[in-house]
Amino acid sequence: MYEGTNFYYDRKYAIFNQVFIMGLLLKGITLPKRLLAQSLTLIELPPPQKVILPLKQYVGEPSKAMVSVGDSVKTGQLIADAHNTHCLPVHATISGTVTDIKEHLDPKGSSIESICIESDGTDTWTTPPASPGESLGYEDILKRIHDAGLITKGLFATPLDKDLVPVDQPKTYLYRDGTDIVKKIDTLLINGLDPEPSLGVNRYLAGTENDTLEQGIAVLKTITGAQRVIFTVDKHFAPWPQLKDIVKKDEEEATAIIALDGRRFPIALPIPLVKAALSREVPLPYGHPRDVGVAVYDLHTVISLGQSIRNTTPQTETMITLGGGAMEKKGIAKVRIGTTIGSLIDALGGLTTDAAKIILGGPMTGMAQYDLATPITKEVTGLFALNNTDIQLSEDYRECINCGMCVKVCPVNLLPGVISLYCAKDKFDLAEAEGLFSCIECGACDYVCPSRRPLVHLFRHAKNQLME
Amino acid sequence: MEPRNYIVSMSPHIRGRQSIETMMSTFIIGLIPTALAAIYLFGIKSLIIMVLSMATAVIVEAVIERITHQKPTFRDCHALLIGLLLALILPSSVPWWMPVVGATVAIVLGKALFGGLGNYPFNPVLVAWVVLRLSWPERMNLFFEPHTTTHILTPLMAFKEDPSLFYSYDLSSLFLGQKPGLMGTVCDLAILIGALFILYRGVIRWHIPLSFFAGIAFFAAVLRYINPDVYPPVTFHLIGGGVFLAAFFLAPEPVTSPVTPKGMITFGFLAGILTMIIRMWGAFPDGSFYAILIMNSATPLFNYLKPKAYGRSYSA
Predict the structure, then answer these.
(1) Are the CB atoms for A247 and A239 separated by under 8 Å?
(2) Contact yes or no for A363 and B12 at CB 8 A
(3) Would you give the distance in Å from CA A165 to the centre of its chain?
(4) Could you report the per-residue pLDDT of B148-170, keeping only the tens digit for each?
(5) What CATH homologous superfamily does A11-30+139-311 map to?
(6) In chain B, what residues touch A368 (CB-CB under 8 Å)?
(7) CA geometry: angle at B117 spanning B112 and B122, to 5°?
(8) Are the CB atoms for A372 and B1 separated by under 8 Å?
(9) Which segments of chain A belong to CATH 3.40.50.11540?
(10) Is A13 a residue whose pLDDT tops 80?
């Protein structure tokens, strides 16, 4: 039990911690150099001519459109209302006229009702609501986060206000001696690493000065009730001037930086990250870092949170990583939400002729896209254009040769090869008994498999079959 | 941006360079020092045996795949590896038809009948070796002194005849290969060089070789402690026979060895103990090949020794 302990996080403990988790550090994979995020430079882009704004950019329910075709809107104007707690408001990200409201493809491959806006070229902002008072209450902050339309990043993004105060809180756990305990969040883990080594937004932000970071941290501490803050950073991208300042300024010594090897994958996905930084194992399956008292948020999320609290402006931009062998210009870009892939690639100077695969997200966990009219939504972390040398298809996969490479790399200690054999033979109940639902679908086993078996594909298929 | 056709598939969209081809060819490269040492010590005849064995293995596999209408798999180098490994565990005195028979048995009985690479329960090389050893025991027991054609007993056979003989062997020359024996098992230095290469390339892992050595060393040390006059030192057992080749190239064979770290360590350790039991009280001078073959049959059991389930033993 670590509840209520006055935690002093010093360097000695950090070193001990690093030794303790050697087992985990040896798990996972190291990506080849050509796929690591290397040039972390910010690319400036003009606002796009046209945006497509899906009314659902998270796991939840779609919101209701408030505008009709032909209306003129300004940047930052509310165009879709959140009619219940499972949805978020949508704001116009450019100024112009609403040209269409129709079903449109979103990055996850489903059809969602979307608002299309044609730009008038001026990008005039609507006047934001009145500036906040000096002291914001708990409810005010949550309402502000909700109104700004913030989400947690990633494939299974949820509205940030729902993630901060989940419906089923407080959850009780049975302790070993039979007593119920209420799990409180005691640690705020701010992830300066990117979910994948190929992405670079958080690492870029960790090396720059952001005036809203401290406010974001303060707000998150207030809401979650965490006493200490831990930054995880990539040791290959030192220094982190602002983070060091924050640690120095903290007189209670409840702030620390933990440098991890950002070239490893999947060390920066939330569940392995909690283990690597704090030696706490999130209960699987169906576990969440908050079950072990940790709130994990990306640096990018924290900074946009601070922005929305200070300026009362909604989120109209997101930062994504651009990369892949077929991309002419690589780096970090600030893009308006709703920009289509095609127009973004055009603004970046196009693709090389051997482009074979377009991915939203990183190359290990992202989603392959077939339509260049797909918009970039809030969930998207990166845009990758891979060429034929980068991709390896598993159409000619061989039988499992029982080599154990997948067991070596699996971050959650499963036997992926055995589970995949069950999945391939439709023995889904046996696969579940082997821990199928503990799989976090990081794809490390797929990456190393010498027989090139499509392991993650089989796992997802089995999960879908079992859930039906 | 003109529309184009793009590939859509599940993540991950990138893959490592490791494939069955690279894995098997790494094994073959790791065996090259051993093969060169065998040619140096036993002359050009050992090269002929290796070529015969490898050629037979590849041809037999191609014929079987032709008959059963399967895709040809000679590209993955596995038949080549079986042929080479089989040749290396034959004595240099065998007639030309023995590697041919052995390679045919290895491919047909050891591999193809079970459904090819990935499905066989026993190491095909050892299956073929056991068939040869039981069918022609006198031919498989005829060893040459290196660089000569005088017949001589191997250290372990001599030890079996008279336990006090182990004092007459110089351990460093045993390690460098100045001993009679199976072609690929005599020069432990060459095996070690190749083994370090395959360990570095990540094709095999340290668990099985190390625990195999540990099993032998543990058992030998206990015996040595009980009676130092009768039982030889640990090093004699480690380098006197085919332990190095067995530990690095036969026991960690991917298909027939366990996949979990705990399973691999138990597998290796028990195989080491079994080797010593056969050496001490069994009918054969060197038990390491039999020990591995017996442990292969228990591999599915060792896979039950799973790593600690993540987040299951969670407490507060």
Answers:
(1) no
(2) yes
(3) 18
(4) 877 888 888 877 777 777 777 77
(5) NADH-ubiquinone oxidoreductase 51kDa subunit (3.40.50.11540)
(6) 6-11, 13
(7) 75
(8) yes
(9) 11-30+139-311
(10) no
